[in-house]
Specification:
Belongs to the cytidylate kinase family. Type 1 subfamily. InterPro entries: Cytidylate_kin (IPR003136), Cytidylate_kinase_dom (IPR011994), P-loop_NTPase (IPR027417). It catalyses: CMP + ATP = CDP + ADP; dCMP + ATP = dCDP + ADP. With 215 residues, the chain is of the alpha/beta class. The protein has one domain: P-loop containing nucleotide triphosphate hydrolases (Rossmann fold), CATH 3.40.50.300. Helices cover 46% and strands 15% of the residues. The chain has nine helices and eight strands. A five-stranded parallel beta sheet has the order 2-6-1-7-8, with helices on both faces. The protein has a three-stranded antiparallel beta sheet with strand order 3-4-5, with helices on one face. A hairpin with a 2-residue loop joins strand 4 and strand 5. The longest helix is centred in the middle third of the chain and has 17 residues. The structure holds 2'-deoxycytidine-5'-monophosphate.
Length: 215
């Protein structure tokens, strides 16, 4: 039987990562966080002193020896033998990742990596989560979902993730603005199911996603 691919898009703070991960656990599926790739590439370029505007011009195969776990209960991100699991969540990466993710050569490189990681995942299914997954990366996925929530709710969820971050509000809407110039992740493309979690708590959001996958 061929693998069940589930594609989940959504804006920052929509809960797409935690909801996708928990749904994958419940289904025995793999889970792929595609934002981690853009974050790890940004961190690698910063550490190497590369001008971020030129990341797309670099030899990415040489620069970026990337690996990521697809097990929902054992999440890690590496470049070469360097573990970047925590480093990719830093403020430095948060503030710079949009510059890297906006470059077409970076996006096409990351698209290949994502497709190959999903194809090689050993589970019977995988939930692949990230901005352009339902439209550009996995347009043929069996289930395609745009997970969203009102801006107010998204800001609230994000501040629970990162307590004590005063400029969070500005950062989040700023990043969504920058990212939305590259990818339309706020409106579902034809054939993509909109899952609005504004009125749902975490467990209800997970159940709604699992139901969509099972039906
Ligand atoms: O989902 P995230 O916050 O970890 O994403 C990090 C950055 O990467 C964010 O600027 C959006 C971008 N991204 C993207 O352009 N395409 C994806 N498939 C995933 C993330």
């Amino acid at each position: 039987m061929s693998k069940t691919i589930v594609a989940v898009d959504g804006p920052a703070g929509s809960g797409k990562s935690s909801v996708s991960k928990q749904a994958a656990r419940q289904l025995g599926f793999g889970y792929l966080d595609t934002g981690a790739g853009y974050r790890a590439l940004t961190k690698t370029a910063l550490d190497a002193g590369i001008d971020l505007a030129t990341v797309g011009e670099q030899d990415l195969v040489v620069l970026f020896d990337y690996s990521i776990s697809t097990e929902p209960d054992n999440y890690w991100v590496k470049v070469g033998d360097k573990d970047l699991t925590d480093a990719i969540r830093s403020q430095e990466v948060e503030l710079n990742v949009s510059k890297v993710a906006a470059q077409p050569k970076v996006r096409s490189f990351m698209r290949q990596i994502t497709r190959s990681l999903a194809a090689n995942c050993p589970n019977e299914g995988i939930i692949v989560e990230g901005r352009d997954i339902t439209t550009v990366v996995m347009p043929d996925a069996k289930v395609r979902v745009l997970l969203t929530a009102s801006e107010e709710v998204r800001l609230g969820r994000r501040s629970l993730d990162l307590p004590g971050n005063g400029s969070l509000e500005a950062q989040l809407s700023d990043r969504d603005k920058k990212d939305s110039k590259v990818v339309d992740f706020l409106n579902p493309a034809p054939g993509v199911t909109l899952l609005d979690t504004t009125e749902l708590d975490f467990e209800q959001s997970v159940t709604a996603l699992v139901d969509l996958i099972n039906h």
